[in-house]
Amino acid sequence: MSEVVVEVSGKAGRITLNRPKALNALSLDMIRALTSTLLQWRDDPRVEVVTIRGTGKEGPFGSFCAGGDIRFFHAAALAGDPALEAFFTEEYTLNHLVHGYAKPYVAFMDGIVMGGGMGISQGARCRIVTERTKMAMPETNIGLFPDVGGGYFLSRSPGRLGEYLALTGEMIGATDAVDARLADISLPSGELPSLWDRLAIEGSAAVPVPHRVEGSPLSQHRPEIDRIFALPTVPEIVSALEAETSDWARHTAAALRKRSPLMLHVVLEQVRRARAMNLADDLRMERDLVHHCFHLRPGAASETVEGIRALAVDKDHSPRWNPARIEDVTPAMVAPFFASPWPAEQHPLRGLA
């Protein structure tokens, strides 16, 4: 069975991610299938709207996409497999294609939506979440950073939600996603099949209108988030959280203490640089960053390889971060991540407009 099922039904080009046992984690073959399909449909007069969903264990919907295939990242990095470089170049090119797609693209972000799943949904004309949505950019937990355009779309969240979500990797639900401008509309999951079918019948006329929501759980912490996550450095952010007495502050500080100290510093710089960048420039920066994640310290010495080992390979949940403490990271450790390994004319994403 194909891991990406595509069909044209009525006025809709339909995409179903079909790797449910892996929570639809993206492989290089899936990225290539998605890119090829979108390029083909861009000029297909039959296709008025594109819809994308994931398959869950019980059938369509229920799980969108848990991200990239991190076990592949781990094995490829240790083997020196050039497919790892191709993966990120082609994934980021796909992310750019989605953001600039000429036809309405509707993402049914039901269930798990993380990492690479955000990359193929955040550029959608309409981003639909449900009561089952579990959204996060949890990359600091594996010694990585929120890529796939994460610097771009997180930095455009209100206030300092971008820094908060990027650094902590906190999982949020539907109302928080809409409030953070990472989704456009929240619908009951039971309504998704009928909307999926209606889009095929009515095309772009059936695309839901975005709406804002009130009362998201995160909104009650916005004053603290905006004050603390605006501080200049990661040590100052953590120190401020640890000086607070609320359960939220204690939980947030404890979460940050578990993340890769080095990558927390890199991520804060990433989000703040991206706030002043267009999408193409952000993706080029992120392509530089991800290259360095695997090559500044090659093989098992990579912070990312170690993070994936602890979470998904050995599953001991005890990553040996280097440096081990947030306070031990120096600017000299962070700066090399932001130096491109390629001249501009040779950059893998030089063609992005």
TrEMBL record:
The keyword Hydrolase applies. It comes from the Bacteria. It holds the Pfam family ECH_2. Coiled coil: none annotated. One of its GO terms (molecular function) is isomerase activity. Keywords: Hydrolase, Isomerase. Residues 13-338 form the Enoyl-CoA hydratase/isomerase domain. GO terms for biological process: L-valine catabolic process. SUPFAM superfamilies: ClpP/crotonase. PANTHER family: 3-HYDROXYISOBUTYRYL-COA HYDROLASE (PTHR43176:SF6), 3-HYDROXYISOBUTYRYL-COA HYDROLASE-RELATED (PTHR43176). NCBIfam families: PRK05617.1. This is Enoyl-CoA hydratase/isomerase family protein. The lineage of its organism: Bacteria, Pseudomonadati, Pseudomonadota, Betaproteobacteria, Burkholderiales.
